[in-house]
Every structure is written in structure tokens, then in C-alpha cells.
Write a structure and sequence with these properties.
Elements (H helix, E strand, L loop, with lengths): L18 H24 L30
């Protein structure tokens, strides 16, 4: 008569993943965004531009016929 099959191992369900395994890509993304923002916002060797006044708006000396508003 044939021999009974030998039991080699028992299959079990794996343990559910930990919080880190589930969310490590999100943590890496958040850290990468934060690190990039810090590098771009706080590391700057150029001198700050001095405050310069904006040019004032000037009206033309004589209004042209095209620029006047006509009623009705």
C-alpha cells in the first residue's frame, strides 16, 4: 500500500502589516515635501532686492478722441 503524504508545513495567514508598512510611502512623501520646501525657502544666497517704488500712473496731456467715453 502507498505511504501517506508527509506533512511538510502548515500554511497560516500572514500577520497584518504594521502601521509603518502601510504608511511608509506617505511618511516619505511628507518628509520629502517638507525637506524640499525648507531647502527652497530658507537656503538663498542672493541679496534681497531693495524696495523700489512703483512708477506712478500718468495721464496723457491731452485726451484723444478714441479714449473719451461717449454717452449713448
Amino acid at each position: 500500500m502507498a505511504k501517506a503524504p508527509a506533512v511538510i508545513g502548515v500554511l497560516t495567514e500572514p500577520a497584518p502589516p504594521t502601521w509603518w508598512k502601510r504608511n511608509r510611502h506617505r511618511a516619505a512623501l511628507a518628509f520629502g515635501l517638507w525637506a524640499g520646501w525648507q531647502l527652497c525657502a530658507n537656503v538663498s544666497d542672493h541679496a534681497a532686492s531693495p524696495d523700489q517704488p512703483w512708477p506712478a500712473y500718468t495721464h496723457p496731456a491731452t485726451p484723444s478722441a478714441d479714449s473719451t467715453v461717449k454717452d449713448g
